[in-house]
């Protein structure tokens, strides 16, 4: 696996400056949450830095890279290719940066859509991407506050805010986002019933 300097050099070279700063900020936020939730800080740091490594690729490049790796894209991904920058980023992380930790790769892969049964690290990267300090949109502060107290509730709110936003923009919503929300709500209800 590449060391942190090699990763920083790669993302600095391949991302716009604002996206590079965002990635560093996501990494710092992920470290903060990993500390709160007793997770591996190094994994959080690396996943945070790398999560957007494919963000500045053109739509055609994203689709080509996915299909070159025999990944069948659903209709939403074909119509909105930027949604797969996490998936393609996980390929770059594995094949270029030699990152083979499954939890880090899944955290990169699903940081945009979420999915059912996310690991704690996946939730941390998903949330960190949303709440890092350079983000300026409404709703971030409440998710940030909740993220330090109850990660699942914070992820649910983040997913719901994302769903509302995507609908308001009349854009296609990825099914994994719905699955992620429904899974977490079902788990919350199940735990309450126990």
TrEMBL record:
Annotated Gene3D superfamilies: Hypothetical protein af1432
EC number: 3.6.1.41
InterPro entries in UniProt: Diverse_Catalytic_Enzymes (IPR051094), HD/PDEase_dom (IPR003607), HD_domain (IPR006674), YqeK (IPR005249)
Reactions that this protein is recorded to catalyse: P(1),P(4)-bis(5'-adenosyl) tetraphosphate + H2O = 2 ADP + 2 H(+)
Enzyme's top EC category: hydrolase
UniProt xrefs under SUPFAM superfamilies: HD-domain/PDEase-like (SSF109604)
Annotated ranges, domain HD: 19-134
A Pfam family this chain is assigned to: HD
Domain of life: Bacteria
GO MF annotations, alphabetized: bis(5'-nucleosyl)-tetraphosphatase (symmetrical) activity; metal ion binding; nucleotide binding
Keyword vocabulary terms for this entry: Hydrolase, Iron, Metal-binding, Nucleotide-binding
Position of the signal peptide: none
Record protein name field: bis(5'-nucleosyl)-tetraphosphatase (symmetrical)
Protein's organism: Clostridium estertheticum subsp. estertheticum
């Amino acid at each position: 696996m590449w060391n942190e300097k090699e990763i920083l050099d790669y993302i600095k070279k391949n991302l716009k400056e604002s996206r590079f700063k965002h990635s560093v900020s996501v990494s710092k936020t992920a470290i903060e949450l990993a500390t709160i939730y007793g997770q591996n800080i190094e994994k959080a740091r690396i996943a945070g830095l790398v999560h957007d490594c494919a963000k500045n690729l053109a739509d055609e490049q994203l689709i080509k890279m996915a299909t070159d790796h025999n990944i069948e894209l659903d209709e939403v991904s074909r119509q909105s290719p930027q949604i797969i920058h996490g998936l393609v980023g996980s390929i770059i992380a594995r094949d270029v940066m030699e990152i083979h930790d499954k939890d880090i790769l899944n955290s990169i892969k699903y940081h945009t859509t979420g999915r059912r049964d996310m690991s704690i690290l996946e939730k941390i990267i998903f949330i960190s991407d949303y709440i890092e300090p350079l983000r300026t949109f409404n709703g971030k502060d409440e998710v940030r506050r909740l993220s330090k107290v109850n990660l699942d509730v914070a992820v649910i709110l983040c997913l719901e805010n994302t769903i509302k936003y995507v609908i308001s923009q009349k854009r296609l919503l990825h099914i994994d986002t719905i699955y992620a929300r429904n899974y977490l709500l079902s788990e919350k209800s199940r735990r309450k019933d126990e």
